[in-house]
Amino acid sequence: MRSAVPVLEVGGSHLTAALVSLDAALPSVTRMRRWHVEPDCSAASFVQTLLEGAAWLDVAPGTDWGIAMPGPFDYDAGIGRFEGVGKFEALNGFDVRAAFTAGLPAAPGRVVFLNDADAFGLGEYAAGAARGFRRAICLTLGTGVGSAFVADGVALSSGPGVPPDGEAHFIVWGGAELEETVSRRAIRRGYAELTGQHLDVHEIAALARAGDGVAAALLERTFRALGEALSPHVRDFGAEVLVLGGSIAGSFDLIEPPLRKGLARDVVLRVAADPEHAPLIGAAAHACSG
Predict the structure, then answer these.
(1) Omega of the bond prior to 160 within 30 degrees of 0, cis?
(2) Its family (predicted)?
(3) CATH architecture of 129-271
(4) Deepest in the core among 181, 241, 253, 286, taking most CB within 10 A?
(5) What is the pLDDT of residues 235-252, one digit of tens each?
(6) What CATH number should be reported for the domain whose range is 5-118+278-287?
(7) What are the pLDDT digits (tens) for 128-141?
(8) Secondary structure in 3-state letters for 97-153
(9) pTM passes above 0.85
């Protein structure tokens, strides 16, 4: 029987430490705590927070770890590549794996890194909205477009239908990367250009539900474009389900109809079942897969 798997998940402003049980029929998080992380913190401060999370979990020496990190990051080497992206700049060229391993009181087993969007996708595949499907595309819609192309429990970075490095933001739509059309900033910018009002996405969505024609048309156009941009990837990847997570997915009722029109093909559309725990479960599954 496999013991609980320790994982750390790093977001734009947080670190989550958790223990994940993979032994039951349905993987689950058995212990979890979150710390605040400043995106402009020093490398030393960042590693110290990682080690605080590890100490709180208090696992035995020789245990394998899964660590989910946002990109750009060299996941095989465990080294940050955060240059010109406005976050974690102090980690650019910094060996996070070596510093984390050296700071633990006893030697761990493997320390395995993976992309945070891949962790989300693997978690939804193992225990969430993509469970029971062989091939799934899982998106996180918010400040950008995160993605995981999961086939038989593996997040792919290449192959038919998979954009470069498995990252949907590299998909070009309307002559620009997809995030220029489908992201929080793009939707806010679009509404401001049409009305002169600077509202957030949830406010625009509320107006659309209340009958605001401008808000409704903007969201219709945005998510139909998302479907049209994704359609060839869904086809070529052979996706059976498309799962949406991230802050914008809270407006799934407004997203689903235009997205389905744009896709123009038979694929199951679902909102993420457990966006809080999915990256943790995915990180654990990945740490135990090699």
Answers:
(1) no
(2) Belongs to the ROK (NagC/XylR) family.
(3) 2-Layer Sandwich (3.30)
(4) 286
(5) 999 999 999 999 999 999
(6) 3.30.420.40
(7) 999 999 999 999 99
(8) HHHHHHHCCCCCCCEEEEEHHHHHHHHHHHHCCCCCCCEEEEEEECCCEEEEEEECC
(9) yes
